[in-house]
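FW: tagging you since you asked about this chain on Friday. Here's the raw sequence from the shared folder, copied in full. Didn't touch anything.
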Amino acid sequence: MIPGILLVDKPKGITSMKVVEEIKRKFRFKKAGHTGTLDPIATGLLIVLVEEATRYAEFFQRQPKTYETVAVLGQIRDTYDEEGKVLEEREVKLSCEDVEKALEKFRGRILQKPPLYSAKKLGGIRAHQYARRGVDIELKAVEVEVYRAQVLECHIPVIKLLYTVSSGTYVRSLVHDLGMELGCGAYVKDLRRTAVGNFSVSMAISFERLMSLEDVMGVLIPIWDALQFLPAVYLSGSQARPIKNGNAIHLKTHFNGYVRLFEGEEFLGVGLIKDGLLKPYRLMPLKVG
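HL: got it, structure written out here
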């Protein structure tokens, strides 16, 4: 099986890991994983890596992610979404202009506390496990980046927002914090991931449709194509030999960063160039025989 990725449109009401497990079982993959959790309440683009493509998950995890969310003003909920317990109700006396102005504070680099009901780990245990046991914990704020925050629709108390954010950003927290800034509270009613880097949900296959297929060859993107956001470096046989043995080589280039490595048409893996020195970073397994 060619190592690659599947672009899956995750439905509501199922965990990301359940999607991966079902795909792995159905198509008998030895390895499978995803590149960023979508809450059960969320729908949209889930990138599933299969077989040796799982080696390259980090490169997809680093890509910016875009979401569209419907938020409701006037309530504070413990999970920050519609499935949570209502902690407080507040009157909403706001205009759409107030929302736009408050949103300005949530662009760029910001400190964000993850929701207590989240997969964030503390002492090896996920935060939501503590929360469901009634254990009080304090999650540290982490720096995230909001590249884009935009009001798509505004019908107070319901607003539709678009966010493009860095890895590790919780849209539920963005909505909750916006509500607190407005003084009325807010929670997520609907959440959809529409893009990861250059991959759009419009390119994805629905989970239901995928599970009806006999094989994935028509929808699988080979890992060397999926990593097209990394520059390609083509090596000669004499250059590739030390790389495959784990050694660095010198290259005449001013580029610094991660690159895809090829020997002819063969994808070798990912290398890292720094100050003219190319080092193997994460290579495909060597062929036996």
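FW: The longest strand covers residues 142-155.
HL: agreed, and The chain has three domains: 4-63+198-224, 65-196, 230-283.
FW: great, closing this out.
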